[in-house]
Amino acid sequence: MTSSPIPTYRWPDLGQISDAVIADYHEAGVVVFEDFASDEACDQLRARARRLMEGFDPAESLSVFSTASESHQGDRYFLESGDKIRFFFESGAFDDDGRLVSDAEAGLNKIGHALHDLDPVFEAFSYRPELGRMAHDLGLADPAIVQSMYILKPPRIGGEVHWHQDSTYIYTEPDSCTGFWFALEDATTENGCMHFLPGHHKGSLRERNVRTQQFATHTERLDATPFPEHLGVAVPARKGTLVVFHGRAPHASAPNRSDHSRHAYTLHVIDQTSTYPDTNWLQRSADMPLRSLLVPNP
Ligand code: FE2
Q1: Is the pLDDT score of 73 beyond 60?
Q2: In the beta sheet, which residues pair with residue 108?
Q3: Ligand 1 centroid to 251 CA: how many Å?
Q4: How far is the CA of 69 from the centre of ligand 1 (A)?
């Protein structure tokens, strides 16, 4: 482990996480595992994402994803994507007349939100038994992946993500949302690596996003206490690194003004023993129920 305020371990040394790692997670709300995924595994996901993008017609979506605005909210294309594979652009991908100024890969913000259940390559990566075991060890009795995203953070136009908590969007009672973030390329302070406020997952959930109509959502303020953003810690992550974080862990990332992309894959896991409200934006059709991430003992 390093002396960084973010507990950091090397995955191959672990195999299975120890009580010390579990204690660090509960204290900091975030733990970093270097060398979790091999270069080959990262490259396989990147190649698969490229294939998916080649098969995507940008006319299908002029949706812009940005947490800096609420522009995607009420957008049917977004709100129906919980059990689909859909493509979302950066706001900087368009000119003043709303025309796409680049090819899809250079302009896309992300692909989501059911890659883990609909694409065999992403499925094989997402349902690795060590992830289910880790989620269980971190306190989720019956973990299931509710959301997957391939995040591109493209060069020069990759947008800023403001301080937020993922439980705002993936809300359960009791709280169980847990993020698994995989660096598929080096994430640096230049290309917009993540920042965390270690320990602040113990604070309140500040906002909750609720679906108010079939294709409209609204973000309710629950607690106006600001995040102490000046205490934010940058978490550069080498390719293959896994960052695991609590659903109430405040995090953010700077815009990517560099010439390098910052591809990452994320999973959000919930405990199926908790209640998942039908007012959460992300809903799946009845014929695509959640699947347990736990591998049964032989
Ligand atoms: Fe987030």
Answers
A1: no
A2: 89
A3: 6
A4: 15
Both tokens of 296, joined, read: 């049964």
Task: State the distance from the centre of ligand 1 to the C-alpha of 255, rounded, in angstroms.
Answer: 14
| Helices and strands per DSSP (H, E), number in the chain | 7, 14
Most confident of 1-5, 50-54, 65-69, 92-96: 50-54
Q: Which residue has better confidence, 238 or 157? A: 238
Q: 268 forms bridges with which residues in the sheet?
A: 147, 179
Residue 266 Cα, ligand 1 centroid: separation in angstroms? 9
- Encode 106-129: b = buried (16+ Cβ within 10 Å), e = exposed: bbbbbbbbbbbbebebbbebbbee
Helices assigned H by DSSP within the chain? 19-28, 39-54, 76-79, 104-107, 115-118, 120-126, 129-137
- Is the CB of residue 178 less than 8 Å from the CB of residue 244? yes
User: In sequence order, which residues have a C-beta less than 8 Å from that of residue 275 and are 6 or more positions away?
Assistant: 172, 173
Tokens 């368009």, residue located = 94
Rounded CA-CA distance 290/84 in Å is 13
- What is the CA(124)–ligand 1 centre distance, in A? 23
| Gap from CA of 138 to ligand 1 centroid (Å) | 19
In total, the chain counts a number of residues equal to: 298
Query: Residue 251 in contact with residue 194, Cβ under 8 Å?
Result: yes
Gap from CA of 135 to ligand 1 centroid (Å): 18
Distance 23 CA to ligand 1 centre (A): 22
The alpha carbon of 80 and the centre of ligand 1 are apart by a number of angstroms equal to: 19
| 239 vs 38: CA distance, rounded Å | 8
Instruction: Supply the mean pLDDT for the chain.
Output: 91
Q: What is the pTM of this model?
A: 0.93
Determine the pLDDT at residue 159. Answer: 87
Q: Would you state the structure tokens that stand for residue 168, as one six-digit string?
A: 């705002």
Nearest alpha carbon to residue 176 among 140, 210, 124, 149 = 140
Residue 182: HSE in the Cβ half-sphere, 13 Å Cα cutoff: 24
CA 21 – ligand 1 centroid, Å? 22
